[in-house]
Amino acid sequence: MPATASTARQASVTALRWGRVSAMGAVAALIVFAGVWGSWGTAQQVMLSKGREQGTVRVTACARDVCSGPFSPTSAGARARARVEIAQPVAVRAGRTYDVVLKPGTADAVRSGPAGILYAWVPLGGALLLASVVVAGGMRLTRVAWVLAGCGLTLLTGAFLAVSAGS
What we know:
Elements: H1 2-47, E1 54-58, E2 61-62, E3 66-73, E4 81-87, E5 97-102, E6 108-111, H2 113-120, H3 122-138, H4 142-166
Parallel strand pairs: 4-6
Antiparallel strand pairs: 1-3, 1-5, 2-3, 3-4, 5-6
Helix pairs in contact: 1-2, 1-3, 2-4, 3-4
Organism: Streptomyces incarnatus
Keywords: Membrane, Transmembrane, Transmembrane helix
Transmembrane segments: 21-40, 118-137, 144-165
């Protein structure tokens, strides 16, 4: 009888371990998915810019959440505009000129080029850092967690450097 009790205990410990790993894996996957979802709204504008209005904007004024300025087109079919807006003024400064892509049907501009691409994926970088903690603590996969953290940190650092160099 003791051998059967030991086997049953071992099976329940194994089941609990698999349950923990499965649950934490689902949480980590959800965090990464949320990071991709949060980034994709802006990233698609920058990365899939074919057919969108592309040009430059010279920032003339910045308010709390928005900077604005005149738009000069550089792509075929784009038209000049007296005023377009760029959200997140942390990435732009008044008096500077930036390459942008306009969101279809609006006067909202998104930075393009390497700085715009990296800046668009910042939510994913944060999600990778958060997921690394879940993977390390909940799943006990420290090497995978270090890889996730390294990727997130590299993405965030790259975005910071690209945006800082362009500002």
